[in-house]
């Protein structure tokens, strides 16, 4: 059985998965700069779990995923976009974390506040809030 998501709404930690890997030159205030530097950029820099084990945990899980031909998180993001799933970035959280420009996130990401997301979610079959 497959569950098809119409929208994946990303806020706080979920926004980091939508950030571009490369540095985007954007003028920011001091606090926004600090948040941008503290938060991981892109899916490759996200922690996989609490089983970090001094950095070896992510390497182990990547090895196991490759061994079992599992798709990587970047591949999964690309796949859901191809399937028409809406990836929505929380605009309020973007402001809080100093993500001020849409150029800082992946192509194809839409932007919405919580109220807009909840309005869409009320009419949808399945949604995911990350």
Keywords:
alpha/beta; 130 residues
Strand content: 5-15%
Helix and strand pattern: EHHHHEHEHE
Output the strand order for the largest sheet: 3-2-1-4
Structural class: alpha/beta
The major sheet is characterized as: 4 strands, parallel
The general outline is globular
Task: Give a verbal description of the structure.
- With 130 residues, the protein is of the alpha/beta class.
- The chain has 6 helices and 4 strands; from the N terminus they run E-H-H-H-H-E-H-E-H-E.
- It has helices at residues 13-18, 30-38, 56-67, 73-82, 91-96, 114-123; strands at residues 7-10, 86-90, 110-112, 127-129.
- The chain has a 4-stranded parallel beta sheet.
- It is globular and about 40 Å long.
- The mean pLDDT is 81.
Explain briefly what this protein structure is.
With 130 residues, the protein is an alpha/beta fold.
How would you summarize the topology of this molecule?
Blueprint: E1 7-10, H1 13-18, H2 30-38, H3 56-67, H4 73-82, E2 86-90, H5 91-96, E3 110-112, H6 114-123, E4 127-129
Parallel strand pairs: 1-2, 1-4, 2-3
